[in-house]
Amino acid sequence: MDYNEQSDAVVLIVDDEKSTRDGLRLALEDSFDCYVASDIREAMNILKSENVDLILTDLRMGGDNGMDLLDQALTLPHPPIAIMMTAYGSVDTAVEAMRRGAWHFVTKPLNIDEVEMLIQRALRGRSQDSKITQLKQENQQLRKQNGKSPHGLERLIGKSPAMESIHQMITQIAPTKATILIEGESGSGKELVAGAIHALSGRPADKLVTVNCAALSPQLLESELFGHEKGAFTGATQKRLGRFEQANGGTIFLDEIGEIDQATQVKLLRALSEKTIERVGSNTPVKVDVRIITATNKNLRKLVADGEFREDLFFRLNVVKIEMPPLRDRAEDTILLANSFLKEFAIENDRNEKPLSDEAANLLQNYRWPGNVRELRTAIEHGVVMSNDPFISPKHLPRFLTRVKTLPNDTPLSAKETKNNLAQPEDFNLSAQEKRTIQQALEHSNGNRTLAAELLGISRRTLQRKLKTD
Q: pTM higher than 0.70, yes or no?
């Protein structure tokens, strides 16, 4: 169970004194679903028929012992958390209760607010432990599936019409041998598209070779792509296979294809047209069977018109073109992507997976994301690392998302605007201020009364009482 809304939690109160169990039920029922029992037999009947999350049990109940109830409860398939109560508290008794599996130990007379906060912490602790276990299991499963995906589209997250269209296109073209050109802004996910096409192509999973053409000088790029013979140039002390030969039987992905020089363009054109390459320092052609996928953040047609890119090579590369939309043009995918990154970075940093507050989600959806998905990913990682709260709010996100914009040319406020920004008489009404503060806390916590109470520094019971009197 997720205890972000702890009013869903089920608490069983066990005490042989009717006044005590009824008093606890009345005090706690606003926060939890409460059951009561007067002895072990009655308690076990409830435990076997209901999904109880926590037992609050007396230690001594006539002829029964709360320790015995604890022992029996812990044998259930889904054992509840147990908190022991007693008027006969001692260090030895507390240690024994903890040793036998109790989560905590409280003494009578009880402070109801303290008991309620204790129950909330116990439930939240279990929720966090359960979430960590779940995330670790999912992470292990993802690692097992890495490179073995039956459809290769999992990482291309999006339900927008643009992404649905891209999914369909990938499914259709992947099994073919067609050369693919992927165009799109930096950070929009072009490499993920290439990976999905390869995964669906039927070619060996470990035969996807990626080359960032912009990261290498023309001399190094030619050797990197096609390899070289021993002595081909200074420092070439032995023969080296290039990326095309390494990818033989698979796929080569040439990222930033618009950056390659004219000489390399000629050799690449030959690789495409004749299915052969020549290592640097050799005139012997080497046959290769390689599916070619290229990507660029430039307009290749314009580069062709400007004489910077060979037209015949462009036509060879542009057999099928996929245009990756920028994130700002598919804003409906922003939160889907953000939630995926939340899970990824929670696992990576061994943190609990935390939801976005409404304010944070609105910020993400309304931002233009010039760096596209890559920039969003970085922002979410920042939020996961910086948040010590049960959720991620605007204060945890990078400052560029929350920076307040000034008026153009620092235009001064008018007298009327200045007056409107001053405190008004109603602002000094304490009751009205309290109502506004409570409302803000509820909005900040997405309506979660437990979290709102913590933000306000009061118990949930006190918050419930204030809300009833409004």
A: no
